[in-house]
Design a protein that fits this description.
alpha/beta, 5-stranded parallel sheet, 5 strands, Transcriptional antiterminator
């Protein structure tokens, strides 16, 4: 599914992390032109303040894991990395932190584009993580599928028919095969092991 990228940031909140008050003010002014409330910080991010932010714009030349109140590569909002020196080590840090978009200090006029990219990349990462978590959850339920098929076979069905019945249950309920197996086994336990 192709999703239209975010293009209206009015009402959002940004935290700008930069040691230079002048640069922080320039970014804050650009944010305000886009309808974004921006707060500038020159030190570590406060976990409470971050919870209320929609985006973080940080100077990757001076940032390190210690200033961020989250584990590496788990930012709870889109990150834009401000690039000054283009040092390979600093860029490597930003990539390891999974910064969503980059903005050279010489191109602050492109803040809107960086915000669109950051929000889109962040949304795609969230979708990927959700898919991976769902696949892992379902993978952990494979044994339940086997148990459900065996439970259905106890009542004279062969394995093909038992699996077909389980698939039909999943289709009718519009749930995954694994969830159908869990539901069947739960209902069977409640019914005291009687035929389902």
């Amino acid at each position: 599914m192709i999703r239209a990228p975010v293009h209206n940031f009015s009402g959002q909140t940004a935290i700008v992390v930069h040691r230079s008050p002048e640069i922080g003010l320039r970014i804050k002014e650009r944010c305000h032109r886009l309808g974004i409330r921006a707060r500038v910080r020159s030190e570590d991010l406060d976990a409470q303040e971050v919870r209320n932010a929609d985006i973080v714009i940080l100077d990757i030349d001076t940032a390190d894991d210690g200033i961020l109140p989250w584990e590496r590569a788990t930012a709870p909002m889109p990150l834009i990395g401000l690039i000054g020196s283009e040092s390979p080590g600093r860029l490597a840090w930003a990539l390891a932190q999974e910064v969503d978009a980059f903005l050279p200090l010489t191109g602050l006029g492109n803040l809107f584009s960086a915000m669109v990219i950051a929000h889109e990349v962040f949304a795609r990462k969230a979708e990927r993580r959700a898919r991976e978590a769902e696949l892992a959850r379902r993978g952990n339920l494979r044994l339940e599928v086997i148990r459900a098929v065996l439970a259905l076979m106890e009542h004279g069905r062969d394995e093909a028919l038992a699996l077909k019945q389980l698939r039909t249950m999943a289709m009718v309920e519009q749930i995954s095969l694994e969830d159908a197996a869990v539901r069947l086994l739960t209902e069977r336990r409640i019914a005291g092991g009687r035929a389902i």
